[in-house]
Amino acid sequence: MSTRTWSPAAMGWPRPQRIALAVGLLFAVMLPFTVPNTSWLVIATLGAIWLTLNQSWNLVLGFSGVWHFGQLAVYAVGAYVAALLSLHSHLPMPVNIVLGGVAALVVSTLLSLPALRLRGIYVSLMTFGFAEVVRLLIISDQTGFTGGSYGLSGYRGFGLGLDGISKDRASYWIALAVAVFTGFALYLVMRSPLGSGFVALRDNPSLAAARGISPRTFQMLVFGLSGFFAGVAGALYAYVFGVVSPSLMGLAPMALLVTMLVVGGLGTVMGPIVGTVIMTFVQARLQSWPDVRLIVLGLILLAMIVLVPRGLVPVAAKYKKRLDDWIEEDELSRVSTPSK
Questions:
Q1: Of the four, 203, 216, 255, 313, which is 20 to 30 A from 279 by CA?
Q2: Which regions span the lipid bilayer (predicted)?
Q3: Rounded to whole angstroms, how far apart are CA atoms 128 and 71?
């Protein structure tokens, strides 16, 4: 008697994850028509930009296991380069955004060189110190080139020829398209031999090096690739909101973004998406209480580290696997039991 199970996967139906992803993407596309006011649309646009940044950060922090806490400085480099190009050149917006990503790629790749000689907490200290140096250099600039502590504004925006709600919707859809493209590109990277090399160096550097995976080459690649997408996110922020300032960096934004990654789950494809969506909503609800915002974020981060250290996505995947195994075992027992 055949023991074939009639599960959805065996029948050729789409996997539940793909259905959920398609439904989520459809909801995200239709979101501008469902929000009660434009303020929520602005928050959703910022969340889409954060999603691009978080996916790039997850590549180096989660999949590669490098404790890189200078990603916000790389993000700011992309934002400032795009704003400066908009102010002092006549290049089109897409070119400026890509050039912002390229500038961030170069800076991030250079940052990987000293990081190669360090391990663990020392990489964290070095990269966080780099971010602080960049922030303080911008603040102390007296030439007006970076705008100092006030930042840069008054440059050309998207230039879409739209006003009001139409402009906000277009900005959101552009930010969402960049986030989706980033996710798809990084998914392909992690499914390739390059992604396998990143994970191998994270899990067992000595064995990976013995198998011919160069730590220097792969770490420079992961820093450069993550830096490019972080720079694109920063450039997109500059064009959407029309201002860049040192407030893009610092402890408060880093605490929020790290909390997003921890809540969703480091080293997973869906982790940054889930964590960014949840914490963007929490952040929006905390806007009315700025004095307690960091306290609440700190408590959430502490609770996640203690109770669910791997994040929500790995826990959900664990219970889903148990459910799938139980369903498969039940189907096999039904098929193997002879009918009377």
A1: 203
A2: 20-53, 65-87, 93-113, 120-139, 170-189, 221-242, 254-282, 294-313
A3: 9
13-22 pLDDT, tens digit each: 446 667 878 8
Closest CA to 155 of 100, 93, 201: 93
Compute CA distances 234 → 92, 102, 104, 220, whole Å. Answer: 17, 12, 9, 21
Residue 153, helix vs strand vs coil: strand
Q: Return the axis-axis angle of helices 71-88 and 38-58, rounded to nearest 10°.
A: 120
pLDDT of the residue at 188: 93
The C-alpha angle 152, 69, 140, rounded to 5 degrees, equals 35
Question: How many other C-beta atoms lie within 10 A of the C-beta of residue 151?
Answer: 19
pLDDT score at 330: 66
Q: Look up residue 110 and give its two tokens.
A: 């250079």
The stretches in the chain having pLDDT less than 70 are 1-17, 159-162, 330-332, 334-340
User: SS3 string of 242-310?
Assistant: CEECHHHCCHHHHHHHHHHHHHHCCCCCCHHHHHHHHHHHHHHHCCCCHHHHHHHHHHHHHHHHHHCCC
Residue 59 is given by DSSP the state I
- Give the other-Cβ count within 10 Å of 337's Cβ: 9
Half-sphere exposure of 23 (CA within 13 A, CB side): 7
Tell me the C-alpha distance between 96 and 89, whole Å.
Answer: 9
C-alpha to C-alpha distance for 300 and 294, rounded to whole angstroms: 10
Position 36 scores a pLDDT of 77
Task: Indicate the burial class of 260 (C-beta count within 10 angstroms; 0-12, 13-18, 19 or more).
Answer: buried
Name residues whose C-beta falls within 8 Å of residue 291's C-beta, 6 or more positions apart in sequence.
none
Helix, strand and coil in the chain, % to nearest 5: 75, 0, 25
Amino acid at 131: A
Rounded to the nearest 10°, the torsion over CA 288, 293, 296, 301 is: 130
What's residue 70's pLDDT? Answer: 92
Contact 109, 224 (CB under 8 A): yes
